[in-house]
C-alpha cells in the first residue's frame, strides 16, 4: 500500500521489526533538484521536493533517522539498495556503516545518455547495495551480472517526477534480491516506480511518499496500471 507519510514515522508506526525482505531507498540527494532546465523559460520543470534543500546537519539527521528504520524493519541478511550520486556517496557510506549495515557493492548506473554538468557532463549515478548483519547473508539471484548497469535514463522532458528512475532498474533490483510473494518496502515513492515494478513482479509491497502532490502522481500511476 502507498502511504502519504514520512518513511521515518510511517515505518515506525506500521512496520514490525525484521519483517521486510528488501528495502529500496531513492532519497533526496539534498541537491535542490527541480528537473531539467532545458525549458522555454530556462526554469526547472518541477519544484524542489521535501528534504532536498536542508542544512547539512539536518540532512545528516534525516538520513540517519530513515536508515535506522530501514535497519530495524529488514530481516537479517537481507538487502537495502540506496540511490546516491558521487557528491553524497562518502557521507551516505559512512551513515550506512554507523547504522549497522555492511556495504557489499556500489553499482554504477550508466544512464547511456549525458545529462547536465559542466566539467564533464553527468552520465552515472551510484546504487549502494548493503546488507543487514554478517550471518546468513542472502545472495543475489544470479552470478552473471556485473556492478555496471547500462539502463537508459528517462529523458528530462518526459519524466513525471524530477528524479524518476526507469522501471527496468527497479525490476532488476527486486528480481535480484527478493522472491515472488516476498515483502518489498520503498521509502521514497516519488512517481511510484517501485510499487509499479513490485506489482508486476508479484511482490507484496508498502511505500511512503511525504509530499501530497507526488503521492497523487504515484497513486494515479498505479491506478492506471490496474485498469
Ligand atoms: C529522489 S525522489 C524518488 C523518485 C522515485 N524513485 C521515482 O523514480 O520516481 C525522493 C522522493 O522522496 C520524497 N520524500 C522526501 N522526504 C520524504 C520522507 N521523509 N518520507 C517519504 N518520502 C519523502 C520526495 O517528495 C520525493 O518525491
UniProtKB/TrEMBL annotation:
Coiled coil: none annotated. Belongs to the N(4)/N(6)-methyltransferase family. InterPro entries: DNA_methylase_N4/N6, DNA_methylase_N6_adenine_CS, N4/N6-MTase_EcoPI_Mod-like, SAM-dependent_MTases_sf. It comes from Paenibacillus albidus. One of its GO terms (molecular function) is N-methyltransferase activity. This is Site-specific DNA-methyltransferase. One of its GO terms (biological process) is methylation. Keywords: Methyltransferase, Restriction system, S-adenosyl-L-methionine, Transferase. The keyword Transferase applies. Pfam families: N6_N4_Mtase (PF01555). Residues 20-212 form the DNA methylase N-4/N-6 domain. The keyword S-adenosyl-L-methionine applies. It comes from the Bacteria.
